[in-house]
Design brief:
Length: about 140
């Protein structure tokens, strides 16, 4: 069996080297993950979250993005925090409710606003243009 070659410094090469090193050294899962993260950082790669963290104390919107049909958004309310809906970093998830076409719906969402049971729904903190307008008017007032 021939060993697969990757371009030097590529993401795949770094992961392959870490796997070999972990297997040779009999590392635990934690040691392997730490090695992968530090080696990727040294190679210039970054690991970041897919989505921004959701602050469940601020206003919420539920986004619906089905594979077919039209997307929609709905005002939502958080109800209960639960440790059973942890994301990969151990942040707690929330039970969120909203009204969609006159029917009450609910779902468990993690700290990034994702739901494993309802993959076409996501919770976000809505971005508001009001914050930008307030900041702009404050800076205009300081200049004058």
């Amino acid at each position: 069996m021939t060993e697969q070659r990757y371009p030097k410094g590529s993401f795949a090469e770094v992961i392959a080297l870490c796997q070999r090193e972990a297997a040779n050294e009999n590392w635990s899962i934690e040691e392997t993950v730490d090695s992968v993260i530090s080696d990727l950082a040294l190679a210039g790669w970054a690991i970041r979250r897919s989505y921004e963290l959701v602050d469940y104390n601020l206003p919420l919107k539920v986004l619906l993005d089905p594979p077919k049909g039209s997307a929609a958004s709905f005002d939502a309310r958080p109800h209960t925090m639960s440790a059973s809906v942890d994301d990969l970093q151990g942040n707690k998830g929330w039970l969120v409710t909203w009204f969609e076409n006159g029917r009450a719906k609910s779902g468990w969402f993690d700290d990034e606003g994702r739901s494993l049971k309802q993959p076409h729904y996501r919770v976000v903190n809505p971005k508001t243009p009001c914050a930008g307008a307030v900041a702009a008017s404050a800076s205009i007032g300081k200049v004058a």
